[in-house]
Batch of 2 targets.
Target 1
Amino acid sequence: MATDASNRNAKESFQHSGGTISRYFHLVLDAIIQLEERYINQPSKANAGYIPVPPEISKSTKFYPYFQNCIGALDGSLVPVTVPSKVSSVYRCRKGFTAQNILVVCSFDFTFQYVLAGWAGSVHDSRVLEDAKKKGFKIPDGKYYLADAGYASSTSLLVPYRGVHYHLKEQAQANQA
């Protein structure tokens, strides 16, 4: 779906009949629809713009009030894919395999808030985020997401400082707790 491959191309790539490709394509779509109902929360029109402080933050003296406007985390993920050889160089990621770069946004209760798939593995995460914003992904004013150092720090993204090793002392003692 993400590479606009036709049934004929998939039939050739996987060496199966067009009927088999079509049947499994529909099975995958049905599975995605079932996952969407369980794991992706669509925002309601009544609560548009209102995002409560998650209890994981509001009930913690360690995190509140420092993260009171944080509404989740976002990051890109590389998913291995098989693509036609004529476009494989574009889909080859920095880790050496062909992949699709997928932007995933999650809330603190581990539900997906937004997913954008289809970008080639060689594309930088920040470019995928910019495309998501053009396609309707919005971060409410005064709120922000946690992101990794691959993104630029802004009023809507909190990223770690480059070269700073956070919580090394706590991580070393974590297995003693």
Target 2
Amino acid sequence: MPPVLRLRAATALVALIAVLLPAGARANGDPASDVLISAPLYVPSAAPSGEQVTKLRGVIARARSARLPVRVAIIDSSRDLGAVSNLFGHPREYAELLRGELVDPAEPGAKSSKEPLLVVMPAGFGTGNVPPDVDRKLRGIEVPADASPDALVGAAGYGVQEYAKARGRPIPATFDKPEASGGGGALVPLLIVLGLGALAAVLIVIRIRARAETDT
């Protein structure tokens, strides 16, 4: 089975188990679901700075004031996913699972929350309950693979700002667009290899010409 199909099958299985398990058994499945059922923000176990978190809470509050309530889960490592740690690095799949888990266990028969959901991992964004064009916009935001907890908070804040802008209700910008890392590091070795190859070609041509002149 191709890797993509295996991942989809595993995600579907995890989602099915989450639905079939009693609410009490699901409660400790993944930490973010326990927090977001009653709060708009889950911060990772590797705690970011208080200043960054305060700024993010302000951005989320401003979005809510603009009638754009949103819940945000920041996932720094597989530890933040609890029983579904296999979904680390797959923000879209985890967002879909988390969206279905946001049901108040105190309300029998309650449906999952319809509030927009943003998940941020070093692999990028995942969303739930947002229009397709907004989903595409957020998935286009690059999150550095080595992003620190503070950087992930910044990416989440920028994502909320972009979400509000895409819905036609922009809020004051607090966070800048994340800067992708690794591009320059990959380019430099490539340029070195190309330069050495060009130098080798020049040396070969010089040697061939020198040999030809000697033979004549």
